[in-house]
Automatic annotation (TrEMBL):
Protein name, entry field: glutamine--fructose-6-phosphate transaminase (isomerizing)
The organism of origin for this protein: Hydrogenophaga atypica
Family annotation (InterPro entries): GATase_2_dom, Ntn_hydrolases_N, Rossmann-like_a/b/a_fold
Record Pfam families: GATase_6 (PF13522)
Enzyme class: transferase
UniProt keyword annotation of Repeat present: no
Membrane-crossing residue ranges in chain numbering: none
Keywords from the named record: Glutamine amidotransferase, Transferase
Amino acid sequence: MISQQPVLRAELELLAHHAEQRGKDSSGLYFPQGNTYALYRAAQAISTLLKQVRVQDSGFVMGHSRLITNGLVDNQPVYRDGVCVIHNGIVVNHESLWPQLDKKRQQEIDTEVIAGIVADGLDKGAAPAELASRVLSLCKGVVACAVALPKLGKLCLFSNNGSLYLGKKGDTLYFSSESFPLRQLHCDSIEQVRQAGVVIDIPSSMVEPQVHELEQRSNNLIPSLGLHQGDEQMLEYKPYKLRRCTRCILPETMPFIRFDKQGVCNYCHNYKPRNKPRPTSEIFNLVERYRRTEGDDCIVPFSGGRDSCYGLHLIVNELKMKPITYTYDWGMVTDLGRRNISRMCAQLGVENIIVADDIALKRRNIAKNFSAWLKSPHLGMVSILTAGDKHFFRHIETIKQQTGISLNLWGVNPLEVTHFKAGFLGVPPDFEEERVYSHGAMKQLRYQWLRLKAMMQSPGYFNSSLWDTLSGEYYRSFNEKTDYYHIFDYWRWDEKTIDDSLLNQYDWERAPDTSTTWRIGDGTAAIYNYIYYTVAGFSEHDTFRSNQIREGDLTREEALRMVEDENQPRYPNIKWYLDAIGMDFKDVIRVINAIPRLAH
């Protein structure tokens, strides 16, 4: 906020409350105090920080609330060389930029490089109005930031994806990551801040700021991807000799599988092609009424995974829509996933709205459920580990309300059908199912009843996470969805085309511990696939490749070679997951390895 008068606390609290939607792990404030500036950083929510800091006497305040991405020890605002920066996004090439500057890196956080570029530019005579282009020409990944230059009395606002808005009401200026809070403040005019940026006058000071570190985090919410260590040897991989379908590669341990005299399974016999898109003219006709001459016209739920990234590529470049992406972070998005989100949104110039849950709480919930599972291992209950992500479906409605955009376009892989996850619980496959996610009240109630019976075997499941789990699944399976379409109903899903497009056009980052590009930004996939393969001799890779065989995209021999590699244990990702939820790697793997095998 920038005003000729002291800021109104109620307005500041409104902006802060909305900022917490992006994350509550850390926060910071920067404002004039006496003849200098005060800079506060804390590993807590901005609403908590505001209760401890008096800012009402200031006419300029900038602050942030965010989830931690790159860097644990260092928090925002970042200050160095007379430059103060708050930044949404991730600079994915920050390490390679430092050798190009006449500045030395001092901190771990990627945001520091923005301050370094600005300071380096000022030293070389750049004017404040030139700083935006200087930063954006060097940085890859989303850069939406406010850069305060107290010695010059200037504030620079700029972004390369539009995740920054400037509003005006009377003589007061407000800026925010989204337009929604500015509308709530009844701003007379709201503009999206893009490449060239905006330069605004703020109080000047030649005195170094007073820095206050109110609270520092002792545990890392974003642990680094595990390096190969001695305990990696605990992970087992056994090539099982299982009877498999002679057409696909599903094994005899697949729930409800039957083979005919030729050895072909019932899953093949009942398969209906899913990857046969309708004419693209249909989707062009469907979205026509949603197009806007000004502003964004659709929401794209965006995990940063391979398929949602390619869906976004199609929506922007083929369908010619103007999307806002929406990301739900429940604590199991790895930094690799976040970096790919940053790459895509920056290169396509697309705003990214993040809804971050209470990550520490979500991870405690996962740990409670995993501990209960380990006491009574049951393959039908493995899905409880991903129950917390279902609020993704709830918050799409939140974003629709905040943006006033009703159309949402999904990039869901049509071949991601995993009957076995419910099958191990006793739910037979529904071969009539047309979508990845099953619906229907009776089917869902039957599933919940079978899960309840399994939960009775380990009372630890009845913990404080239960309501979070049930409410999330309600929004996924029962809540009516409107104005939504699946982009791969109209463009064929082709793995080679997708991988080539993402890797070549967007410098898309691959995982260091697997050859596949599927689910590599998901922190849960490696652990649950390890469980399934170790006990049953197959994983979701086998079901996915089997669907590709049925679609005519792979030969059976190709699929067998692929899953032999893809089912290898992913130690770095498994270690990351267990570190994130605070569970001991050796204790967990020892229990999993001791589970009686279905496969031999």
